[in-house]
Amino acid sequence: MAVYTDVPDEELRAFIADYAIGEVVSCKGIAEGVENSNFLLRTEAGSYILTLYEKRVAPADLPFFIALMEHLAAHGIACPTPVKAKDGVALRRLCGRPAALVSFLDGMWPRRILPVHCAGVGDALAKLHLAGAAFALRRDNNLSVAGWRGLFEACRARAHEVRPGLAEELGTEIDALERCWPRDLPSGVIHADLFPDNVFFRHEAVSGLIDFYFACTDFLAYDLAICLNAWCFETDGSFNVTKARLMLANYRAVRPLSADEFAALPLLARGSALRFLLTRLYDWLNHPSGAFVRPKDPLEYLQKLRFHRSVTQPSAYGLDA
């Protein structure tokens, strides 16, 4: 279970007393998620999500995340809305951790990804990008090309424990991506972590987007490449071009891609695969004994990286320019 900090009843009651939402009815830890401690909270006024931000989330970034959710919700995006306490402040402290209460969204994330889900994600992601265009704050993406070499160096000496020769392959890949990475594609707010467990559906329609704690400012098409990796591969590692075609077509119907963005998709998808490979590799090699959360297999993303490296034209993703 992804609950790293227990919240005693008396501390929870004192925390909720600062809000105009009545008394606590129940509070239950949420198993999904690996970065923070999350609880489903019910009070006399309704249901909420209580999040305690753990060490991997920098406190200095929290105002960006809170303000972004407020902005997106105000611009019609179905996402958690921070709940302000009686003093008008949403970001608070609980059990020695930064904490916030956000609205509860109905829906479930899909355990089996169907083409219709990929179509909905393409549409929702494009709308998020358009809604974020007027967002005034900026947060650099420290898990993009400038951050990969540092992650790699932290793993290089032990990468062979996961697969022989892995360090050499990753070093070669980073060298190539650093040389070729785009410099001038359209940028803005991106989610940067829109995996299936961060998208809720009701009756095959997207009902909400959650977990904005990797959101940042970067190439918009890089966000789309992240989704290609997260949604369009089957459990056997094969790429599903039908899912990719639907995702890209529905994205472009809302926000057209420039010719440069479309041409850059294979490179951006390689970079996305490398990013998640490296963070998974680091977590795999530095997994504390007895931890509740099982680290995810980094080799899943090695397979995806190799697929994108073999792509010579973006039409391989199902659409022509």
Task: Write up what this structure looks like.
The protein is an alpha+beta fold. The protein folds into 2 domains: 9-103, Phosphorylase Kinase, domain 1 (2-Layer Sandwich), CATH 3.30.200.20; 115-317, Aminoglycoside phosphotransferase (APH), C-terminal lobe (Aminoglycoside 3'-phosphotransferase, Chain: A, domain 2), CATH 3.90.1200.10. 40% of the residues lie in helices and 15% in strands. The chain has 9 helices and 9 strands. The strands form 3 sheets. A 5-stranded antiparallel sheet has the order 1-2-3-5-4, covered by helices on one side. A hairpin with a 2-residue loop joins β2 (37-43) and β3. The longest helix has 27 residues, at 259-285. It starts with 8 loop residues before the first helix and ends in an 11-residue tail after the last helix.
SSE topology sketch:
Layout: H1 9-16, E1 24-29, E2 37-43, E3 46-52, H2 62-74, E4 92-94, E5 97-103, H3 115-131, H4 145-155, H5 166-180, E6 187-190, E7 199-202, E8 205-209, E9 216-219, H6 220-231, H7 241-254, H8 259-285, H9 299-310
Antiparallel strand pairs: 1-2, 2-3, 3-5, 4-5, 6-9, 7-8
Helix pairs in contact: 3-6, 3-7, 4-5, 4-8, 5-8, 6-8, 8-9
Query: Total number of helical segments?
Result: 9
* Uncertain regions spanning at least 5 consecutive residues: none
Number of strands: 9
Say what the CATH topology of the largest domain is: Aminoglycoside 3'-phosphotransferase, Chain: A, domain 2
Total tally of structural domains:
2
Shape: globular
Percent range of helical residues: 40-55%
Secondary structure class reads: alpha+beta
Mean residue pLDDT: 94
* CATH architectural designation of the largest domain: Alpha-Beta Complex
Beta-strand fraction estimate: 5-15%
Q: What are the secondary-structure elements, in order, as H or E?
A: HEEEHEEHHHEEEEHHHH
CATH class of the largest domain: Alpha Beta
**What does the radius of gyration come to?**
20 Å
Strand order of the largest sheet: 1-2-3-5-4
Biggest sheet architecture: 5 strands, antiparallel
CATH superfamily of the largest domain: Aminoglycoside phosphotransferase (APH), C-terminal lobe
CA distance, first residue to last residue? 44 Å
